[in-house]
Amino acid sequence: MFPPPHIYRDWQLTLQVARLYSIASFFGLQAQKPLLMTESASWKSFVPKDWRIQFGLVLTLLWFVFLAIYIARNVGWGSFMDLPIDEMGAFLEGAFAFLAFLWLVIGLFIQQSVLAENNEELRRNNLHSEKQTQAIAATELNARQETFFKISEATRRQLGAITGLLFISSQGPVGNGSYTSEDLAEIWKQFASGDSEVYSRMFLTMAGQEGVDMFDLFYGTEIRHNHTENFLVGFDRLVKLARECDTDNIILDSLVISAHGLLNLRMRELHPTMKFREIAVTNTQRYLETMANTLPSDTNE
Fold it and tell me: What is the domain range of residue 152?
């Protein structure tokens, strides 16, 4: 069985191409061009790229030509070869002094350029190292902030549970009876659904009402006293953790101005035996003045 016509044509074309490659190889057409390219590349590799070295080589060649002409016209090559060794040495010393000084100056300039390049490379490396250090610091700060948010969520729920126990102790049936067990159950459902500051907001709302003794709510009994101090300790630890990962006090400000934070300030003010230092937050007036100084001036005025 004969092959199909298109396969036969492709086979003939392949055979013709192979024959052309064989003929080209026989006449050396394939090896000639790479050889020329290799010779050109090898010749260029010996040519110095620095213009100062090229200038020095040209000047050295011209100086040798000048010495040859000088010897031929004023001394003569025969007489030059017959000179005593001390006179020939003195002549060569004076003849090559110019070249020695020339290449000394060229080497000095090349060394200065190399030192400048090395200094520039060191500067780029320092900048690169500084950027790497900043990137590592930013990554570490980001990791600390992510860790803080995870811990903060658990701590805020813990503080919400403490305020819930404090609220039940003071406002529930065991306290003044302002809220029934059914009311407390509804509020607890709200807390369980994710609102960890519901009890703190209720305490802050009660602080604005007449006839409410906040000191009694926080420190009236031993149980309330313990709950309040547990709240103070938990919130203070959260504040310290926020300061370690917050360079601009953004996280700290939001923490202090929250319902838990405002209730913490009230508890600190009413503590019977301890006087706490004020939590340092962003000075709003000073920050606004900084904003006003950094804003671009209106050129149309």
Answer: 143-282
